[in-house]
Write a structure and sequence with these properties.
- The protein is mostly beta strands.
- It contains one helix and 25 strands.
- The chain has a 21-stranded parallel β-sheet that branches. The protein has a two-stranded antiparallel sheet with strand order 7-8.
- Helix 1 links the parallel strand 1 and strand 2.
- The two termini are 39 Å apart.
């Protein structure tokens, strides 16, 4: 039998030079220590605070600037109008950088460009940078200026990310939900996307590149004549996800698909496992899938 209907997601709602040879005192922009085991963030905090539970930071980005392997960032309930970029990564599963919502923490998403990052429990909406994503997993890569057809110089990338139990909803046109992206020849590998709800977006809900991602127990709903999944890379597992409420919107210029992959400038899509997924109500005009070798 089909699973119980998920709860409908609703839209939730910045002297003159000294005359002596004595150097001026150093200005401290934050009294928080770099690489602490934990930081707390609250809308009532200050980015000049220590980042402890009793003296929280104000922005998630400030905590991301300070976090190092082994740090957990606790984001308290409230509204954070920011799209956060990682500045460092973890080193193993036991030494991750974790961003965890405590209560309903509403924000615009993450750009994950470092390894072993966990993003858990956020209410994500309101991001409006077109051809980008609420959660984008890619890399810090310098383009090959001598031969742009060859891979660039890799600085870091979002391998082994975990995107867990978030709600991503009510998107604007041409902003994806979760997008794992190849950049100048380098793509993240081994990410886990689990327990998320992606609802009423206006661009692809999920995109993949790289190898060995696991997509498990997520809910994809209110398709809006977009595509639920655009799948590239190899050996991904899609297990026990729900795809439903594939509503149709006229004149979007897109033929909606449950899954699509094609010849994307030489990209391949291979070796995937689809197991125990539930698909219902994709509506007339929605293709179950498109698999071809043409186009770019």
């Amino acid at each position: 039998p089909p699973p119980a209907s998920p709860t409908t997601v609703t839209n939730p709602i910045t002297p003159t030079s000294p005359t002596t040879t004595t150097p001026p005192p150093t200005t401290t922009t934050s009294s928080a220590t770099v690489g602490a085991s934990s930081y707390y963030v609250s809308p009532s905090g200050l980015d000049t605070n220590t980042g402890t539970e009793s003296s929280p930071l104000k922005t998630i980005q400030k905590a991301a600037d300070l976090a190092r392997a082994g740090t957990t960032v606790y984001v308290l309930a409230g509204n954070y109008p920011e799209h956060v970029v990682t500045k460092a990564g973890g080193t193993s599963d036991s030494a991750r950088i974790k961003f965890k919502a405590v209560g309903k923490a509403i924000m615009q998403g993450f750009n994950i460009i470092h390894p072993y990052i966990t993003v858990e429990g956020f209410d994500i909406t309101g991001f409006a940078s077109t051809y980008d994503a609420h959660i984008r997993v890619s890399g810090d890569v310098q383009k090959n200026r001598v031969d742009p057809t060859k891979p660039g110089t890799l600085i870091s990338k979002g391998d082994n990310c975990q995107i867990l139990n978030n709600i991503i909803h009510d998107g604007v046109q041409l902003v994806a939900g979760i997008d794992i992206v190849k950049r100048y020849g380098h793509a993240p590998n081994n990410c886990l996307i689990k327990g998320n709800r992606l609802s009423s977006l206006r661009y692809r809900f999920l995109g993949t590149a790289g190898l060995n991602h696991r997509v498990e127990e997520n809910v994809f709903e209110w398709l809006n004549s977009r595509d639920y999944m655009l799948v590239f890379g190899g050996n991904h597992v899609f297990k026990r996800n729900i795809f439903w409420k594939g509503n149709k919107i006229e004149s979007t210029g897109n033929h909606p698909d449950w899954i699509q992959f094609f010849n994307n400038n030489g990209e391949e899509s291979y070796g995937h496992l689809f197991e125990e997924n539930y698909i219902e109500g994709l509506e007339e005009g929605v293709q179950l899938g498109q698999i071809n070798s043409g186009g770019g």
